[in-house]
Specification:
Elements lengths: L8 H15 L21 H18 L5 H10 L18 H16 L12 H13 L24 E3 H18 L2 H17 L11 E3 L13 H17 L4 H13 L30 H15 L4 H18 L25 H12 L68
Antiparallel strand pairs: 1-2
Helix pairs in contact: 1-2, 1-12, 2-3, 2-4, 2-12, 4-5, 4-6, 5-6, 6-7, 6-8, 8-9, 8-10, 10-11, 10-12, 11-12
C-alpha cells in the first residue's frame, strides 16, 4: 500500500477500499452454501457482527455502497426468531459481549442513516433496543452487587465471570440509545453500569480498565489485564453521556481521563502508533485479539463527534497509526494484506485474517471523521424505527428490578476467548497492581 498514506481523500478511500476488499476474502456468507452473517472457523460469530460494523463505517466514510446489500443480508439473517440477535444456531457461542457487538452495529446503522431494511423486516434501532432490553433483564445482583456475567448458561465455562467488555457494551448501548431517543431510562442504566464497573474495581480510580472478575470470589479477584477495546467502549459511551447531558463537567472529566489512559496502548518507540499491549509484544495474540485495535480506533474517532474538544488529541494518534497500518498492509500473495504489528512499518509480520484487515480498515478510514456528519437522532434526521419493548416480550419495563437468574433460559452462552488468560506474561508493566 502506498507509503504516502494518509494523503488526500481519494488515496485514503482507495486504501480503505483495498482493506475492505481483502477483509471480505475471508467471508463465505455470500457464497453458495454459506450462511449469511457467519464467518468460517476459526472465527466466532461475534466477529462477523463486528466486521459488519466496520463495513457500515466504510460506507459512512467513503460513500461506497458496494457492500451494503451484503451487510443488510447478514445483519438481518442473524437476528434470531425474536429479533434480538439471539440466534438458536449460535447458542453455544453467544454471550453478552457477542450479542452486544451485533447490537452496536445495529446502533451504528441507525446513527449513520444506513439504508433502512424493508418495512416488513426488523429495523436497526429496534434491534439495538432489543439487545439492550434482553441484557437489562440479565443484570445480576445475586453476586458482586450487580453487573452482567460474561456468559449466561450455567453449563458454559465463564458463567462465573463478569467481564468488562460485556458491561462496557451495555454501558455503550445505553448511552447511545439515550442520546438517540432522548429516553432517560437508557441513561439511568448507563450510569448504573458505569458506577458498578468502578465500584467493583474493573475500572481503577485513574481510569484503567481491567478484564473481569469471578462471582465465586464476589469479584474480589480482578484480572488486571488490559485490552484496547475495553477503554474504547467506555470512551464512546462516556462521550455520548457528555453530549446527552448537554456538557456535564463530570462526563467531560471522565472522557478526558479515559482518553489520557489510552496512552498505554501506544508504542513507546514509534510515537502514536497503536499496539495491543497485552499480547502483541509477546506474539500471543489469538484470533479475537487481532481485531481489538479496530474497535479502539472506531470508538476514538466516533467520540470526537460527541466530545469535539478531543479531536486534535485523537487525530494525532489516528493519523500516525493509520499511516503505520497502511505500511503493514504489504503481505499475502497480492502484497496488500494487512498484518497486526503496525510498529513494524512495511515489514509485514506474516499474519493475515479478518481481525488484521478490520483493524487496518477502521484506523485508516477514521482519518476521514471530520469529513462526515455526526450521528443522527430521532429529533435530528434519524429514520430508523424503534420499539422500546423489543426483546422483552412487550411487557418489560427496564426501570423495574429484575431477577436475572430467572432469565437464563432466554439467552445463549459466550464464546471462549482468551480474555482471562494471563499465564506467561508475569508482572508486565501494563498490568496495573
Amino acid at each position: 500500500m502506498a507509503t504516502s498514506y494518509p494523503g488526500n481523500m481519494d488515496s485514503i478511500k482507495a486504501a480503505a477500499g483495498q482493506a475492505a476488499h481483502d477483509m471480505l476474502t475471508f467471508y463465505t456468507g455470500n457464497q453458495t452454501g454459506g450462511i449469511p452473517g457467519n464467518l468460517p472457523d476459526p472465527y466466532y460469530w461475534w466477529e462477523c457482527g463486528a466486521m459488519f460494523g466496520a463495513l457500515l463505517d466504510y460506507y459512512y466514510y467513503t460513500g461506497d455502497a458496494q457492500y451494503n446489500d451484503l451487510v443488510t443480508q447478514g445483519m438481518l439473517f442473524q437476528t434470531g426468531p425474536n429479533n434480538d440477535y439471539m440466534t438458536p444456531n449460535q447458542t453455544k457461542t453467544t454471550g453478552n459481549d457477542d450479542q452486544g457487538f451485533w447490537g452496536m452495529s445495529a446502533m451504528s446503522a441507525a446513527e449513520q442513516k444506513f439504508p433502512d431494511p424493508p418495512s416488513d423486516k426488523p429495523q436497526w434501532l429496534a434491534l439495538a433496543q432489543a439487545v439492550f432490553n434482553t441484557q437489562a433483564l440479565r443484570w445480576d445482583t445475586q453476586f458482586c452487587n450487580g453487573g452482567l456475567r460474561w456468559q449466561v448458561f450455567t453449563f458454559n465455562t465463564g458463567y462465573d465471570y463478569k467481564n468488562t467488555i460485556s458491561n462496557g457494551v451495555f454501558f455503550n448501548l445505553g448511552a447511545r440509545l439515550a442520546k438517540y431517543t432522548g429516553n432517560q431510562t437508557y441513561a439511568d442504566w448507563a450510569i448504573k453500569a458505569w458506577d458498578w464497573t468502578a465500584a467493583v474495581g474493573l475500572m481503577s480510580q485513574d481510569y484503567h480498565f481491567f478484564d473481569g472478575c469471578h462471582t465465586t470470589l464476589n469479584c474480589t479477584d480482578v484480572n488486571k489485564q488490559q485490552w484496547t477495546y475495553n477503554a474504547g467502549v467506555y470512551l464512546l459511551g462516556a462521550a455520548n453521556m457528555y453530549n446527552y447531558t448537554n456538557g456535564s463537567d463530570l462526563w467531560r472529566e471522565r472522557v478526558n481521563n479515559i482518553l489520557n489512559q489510552t496512552s498505554i496502548f501506544y508504542s513507546p518507540t514509534v510515537p502514536n502508533v497503536m499496539l495491543e499491549i497485552a499480547c502483541e509484544p509477546y506474539n500471543t495474540c489469538d484470533t479475537d485479539n487481532y481485531s481489538f485495535k479496530a474497535y479502539l480506533s472506531r470508538w476514538m474517532a466516533a467520540s470526537t463527534k460527541m466530545a469535539p474538544w478531543i479531536y486534535d488529541t485523537v487525530m494525532e494518534k489516528i493519523r500516525a497509526s493509520a499511516a503505520a497500518a497502511a505500511l503493514q498492509c504489504s503481505g499475502g500473495t497480492s502484497g496488500t494484506f494487512c498484518g497486526m504489528k503496525w510498529t513494524e512499518g512495511a515489514k509485514w509480520d506474516g499474519t493475515t485474517g479478518v481481525g488484521q484487515q478490520m483493524s487496518a480498515l477502521e484506523v485508516m478510514q477514521s482519518v476521514l471523521i471530520s469529513k462526515v456528519a455526526g450521528p443522527v437522532t430521532n429529533s435530528s434526521g434519524g429514520t430508523s424505527k424503534g420499539d422500546p419493548s423489543a426483546g422483552s416480550g412487550g411487557t418489560f419495563d427496564p426501570r423495574l428490578p429484575q431477577d436475572a437468574i430467572q432469565q437464563r433460559d432466554r439467552v445463549g452462552a459466550g464464546f471462549l476467548t482468551t480474555l482471562v488468560i494471563v499465564s506467561g506474561l508475569g508482572s508486565a508493566w501494563w498490568m496495573i497492581a
